[in-house]
Amino acid sequence: MTVFSLTCSSCGTPVEIPGRYGFKLKSAGITNTVCTRCRQGAFLASRRDNISGQIAVGPSPDQRRLIPLAAAVAALALLIGGIVWRSAVPTAQEALPVSESPSR
What we know:
This protein is mainly α. The protein has helices at residues 19-28, 36-57, 61-88, and strands at 3-7, 14-18. The protein has three helices and two strands; from the N terminus they run ββααα. It has a two-stranded antiparallel ribbon. The longest helix is centred in the C-terminal third of the chain and has 28 residues, at 61-88. The radius of gyration is 35 Å and the shape is elongated.
C-alpha cells in the first residue's frame, strides 16, 4: 500500500497518510494537515477549558433537584385545576332547564 507523507501545519513533523486518501489530499494541494500529537494536544486543551468553564458556571446540585420537583408541582396544579374546572362549570347538556317545558 502506498503511503504519502505530508508535513504537519503546526510543528512540521511528517504525517503519513496511507492509500487513496493520501493521494487525494496530496494532489488537491491540502497543506493544513495536523499530526496526532498536535491534534491530541489541541483536543485536551479545549476539553480542559470546556470542563473548567462548565464547573465554574454549572448549577449546583440543589438547583438541579428543584427542576423535576417544580415540574411535578406544576403538573399536579394543572391536574387539580382541570378537575375543579370540570366539576364547577356544567355544560349546556348537563344543566337543568331554567323553566318547565310549555308542552307539559
